[in-house]
Recover the amino acids of this structure.
């Protein structure tokens, strides 16, 4: 199909959406005005790093409030994200949670999303992701902002398929406790204080959960190398989580300390080798983020902010099952092959940004310095050699990254948000990331948003995103030099806001280059796979009926022009229905259906 035909289909679909929207809604002018005023209250800085209405930002932004997530019965961020259009919640064989967006993110490396907690990045350079954020309980969250598509023009590395920002509660007091299946419990508490006579504010938000796991049995062995395990049998899906967030504000000076730790059993086992189920946590991931920042104003139209952030990511594995003893010359379970490992990474980031408003332009610029250092990397296995036999003690083996690995970068962000008139806004910007150890990247973005009326918003965007090879991918490369992945996406969107109906249509075309995949046969390792052309359509519907029913549904279609990307699904259909049984009681049904991957 030619590009001209693509545009013809785009225009046809958008006009159909426009016509259908007008016919579907016949509300009074006052209802429409009230709906539009509610829309204006939904502010975000996720897409542009400047405050702007959520539906006026370039690209399609989804916002989930605490009230919505609680009424729909979601327990964690991971479950809430799974309800969004174009998003598929995934879990690997060892129980690590993640998501794929628009089919981007395969079964081996589903780490294509920038993860932010209160605006602070948590992605580790070693693995490009972190498993703790997805376990965050809903009770700790104020709202979730999620933008689909490239986000590197503002957020740089890892904002390849989308950006998730979790905003936690900071005001008032909030307490909750509950019990769950699998002998589980949850607890959360929020304490806050604001000086009535000054600018001092502080809050602490804590949460904890624990579960022995559901009674789930595995099937037969799926190991690609034929090593026997304890399958079939029960999986070890024990899981616990703790989180503490301390915020201190004094005028323009802010300090933020965020700590999260997630522990879990090894589920189906590494390489699908099922271990004995002893209901012990085997894998532990922890994140510590400390940030201090201060806003300042140089004159009436020029404001700025500096910040200094320290991020520590740590992953520890204890007695991780690697194979049945018999396969390595052992005699019984006491000789089973297990591994202990530790990977600790520290990131220091300094940033200064300026925002200047002149006439119809809102100019934004940022300069960012980043230094990443692997603090510790070790692995011990009870083998004498990789082929066996078992050893009576743990012996040191090579690790996926070296404890001397480093990565530093300097980044420059420039953006102009130009209000052509009261209803038309053009946003143009780019980000330049210069690395010491890999090639530099330029991520441009240009977007146009047309607010045709109070009910109809049209938007288009052309943007590039990139994901550099993680330290694990770089060290495990099958090639002399592994290149950064890039995502060039052109998208067109339409939003209709009525009194009790919201429709969102998005059509996108993406070109994915140098995707990093894992070769799961000898020689094992990572490699650049070439190019994939992706096109897709997303429809979102939100409908209120008689103040008792709330319907939210979405349809996502995606098609690869040539080869199919591993792990991608051709369609997703999601339906959520909520019925207000009583003022404080609601029933919610969520159905998610996916095409074959």
């Amino acid at each position: 199909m030619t590009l001209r035909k693509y545009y013809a289909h785009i225009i046809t679909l958008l006009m159909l959406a426009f016509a259908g929207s007008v016919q579907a809604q016949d509300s009074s002018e006052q209802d429409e005005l009230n709906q539009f005023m509610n829309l204006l209250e939904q502010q975000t800085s996720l897409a542009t790093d400047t405050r702007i209405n959520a539906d006026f930002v370039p690209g399609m932004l989804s916002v989930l409030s605490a009230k919505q997530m609680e009424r729909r019965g979601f327990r964690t961020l991971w479950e809430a994200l799974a309800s969004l259009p174009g998003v598929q919640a995934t879990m690997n064989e060892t129980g690590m949670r993640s998501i794929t967006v628009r089919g981007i993110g395969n079964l081996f490396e589903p780490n294509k999303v920038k993860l932010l907690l209160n605006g602070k990045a948590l992605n580790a350079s070693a693995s490009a992701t972190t498993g703790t954020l997805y376990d965050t309980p809903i009770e700790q969250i104020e709202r979730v902002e999620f933008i689909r598509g490239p986000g590197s023009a503002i957020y740089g590395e890892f904002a390849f398929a989308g950006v998730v920002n979790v905003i936690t509660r900071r005001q008032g007091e909030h307490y909750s406790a509950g019990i769950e299946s699998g002998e589980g419990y949850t607890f959360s508490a929020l304490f806050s204080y604001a000086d009535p006579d000054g600018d001092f504010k502080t809050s602490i938000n804590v949460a904890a959960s624990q579960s022995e796991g559901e009674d789930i049995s595995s099937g037969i062995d799926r190991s690609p190398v034929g090593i026997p395990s304890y399958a079939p049998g029960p999986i070890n899906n024990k899981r616990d989580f703790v989180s503490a967030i301390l915020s201190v504000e004094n005028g323009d000076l802010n300090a933020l300390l965020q700590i999260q730790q997630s522990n879990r059993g090894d589920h189906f086992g590494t390489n699908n080798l099922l271990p004995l189920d002893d209901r012990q946590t085997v894998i532990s991931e922890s994140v510590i983020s400390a940030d201090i920042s201060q806003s300042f104003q140089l004159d009436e139209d020029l404001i700025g902010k500096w910040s200094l952030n320290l991020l520590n990511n740590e992953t520890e594995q204890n007695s991780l099952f690697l194979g049945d003893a018999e396969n390595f010359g052992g005699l019984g379970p006491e000789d089973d092959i297990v591994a202990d490992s530790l990977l600790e990474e520290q990131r220091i980031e300094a940033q200064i940004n300026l925002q200047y408003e002149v006439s119809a332009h809102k100019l934004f610029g940022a300069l960012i310095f980043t230094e990443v250092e692997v603090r510790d990397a070790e692995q011990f296995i009870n083998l004498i050699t990789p082929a066996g036999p078992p050893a009576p003690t743990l012996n040191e083996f090579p690790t996926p990254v070296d404890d001397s690995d480093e990565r530093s970068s300097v980044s420059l962000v420039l953006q102009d948000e130009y209000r052509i008139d009261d209803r038309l806004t053009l946003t143009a910007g780019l980000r330049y990331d210069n690395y010491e150890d890999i090639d530099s990247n330029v991520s441009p973005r240009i977007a146009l948003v047309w607010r045709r009326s109070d009910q109809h918003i049209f938007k288009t965007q052309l943007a590039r995103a990139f994901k550099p090879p993680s330290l694990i991918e770089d060290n495990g490369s099958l090639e002399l030099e592994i290149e950064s992945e890039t995502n060039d996406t052109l998208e067109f969107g339409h939003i209709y806001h009525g009194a009790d109906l919201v429709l969102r249509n998005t059509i996108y075309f993406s070109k994915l280059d140098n995707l990093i995949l894992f070769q799961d046969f000898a020689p094992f390792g990572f490699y650049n796979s070439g190019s994939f052309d992706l096109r897709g359509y997303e429809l979102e519907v939100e409908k209120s009926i008689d103040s008792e029913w709330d319907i939210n549904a979405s349809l996502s279609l995606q098609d690869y022009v040539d080869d199919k990307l591993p792990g991608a699904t051709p369609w997703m259909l999601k339906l959520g229905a909520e019925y207000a049984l009583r003022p404080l009681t609601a029933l919610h049904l969520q159905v998610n259906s996916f095409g074959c991957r």
